[in-house]
Amino acid sequence: MRIVHIITRLIIGGAQENTVLSCEGLRARGHDVYLWSGPTTGPEGSLVARATHGGYAYQEFPDLIRSISPLHDLRALRALRQRLEQLRPDVVHTHSSKAGVIGRIAATLAGVPQIVHTIHGMSFNRTQRYWTREAYALAERFC
Predict the structure, then answer these.
(1) 21-70: pLDDT as tens digits
(2) Cβ neighbours of residue 11 closer than 8 Å, sequence gap 6 or more
(3) How far apart are CA 108 and CA 9, in angstroms?
(4) Could you tell me the pTM of the whole model?
(5) Which of 6, 22, 38, 132 measures 20 to 30 Å from 67, CA to CA?
(6) Segments in 1-143 forming alpha helices (H)
(7) Contact at 8 Å (CB) between 82 and 124?
């Protein structure tokens, strides 16, 4: 199968490490695997070097950023959709809140037959501003 994993960034952390391990395991089983991420920024450290040497295709999408940004989000949606239409994967597996929403919409618009989303943590909680929390809740209900 041709499988695309989409995540917001490849910092050192649980969701990211789980995603990289999934890509490595699927590749070892003979699948055609792609890992797409937004820019990896933050003090946590990076898994990009591991991803680029994992035996699968790694690609960064500059507009797939962590924070809500309508302009970047629309650009990321368009770029992901175009790339998915070119690649024609069997499965898209999204990880993290932002990549999960944008990736699922892009995969649906591109006609991907199987879309999977893994929730690695709550995308919205009481520590966020009201509008941010409501935007994520609405987006999750939509997806």
Answers:
(1) 999 999 999 999 999 999 998 888 999 999 999 999 999 999 999 888 99
(2) 40, 41, 42, 44, 45, 46, 47
(3) 22
(4) 0.90
(5) 22
(6) 14-28, 48-52, 70-87, 97-109, 130-142
(7) no
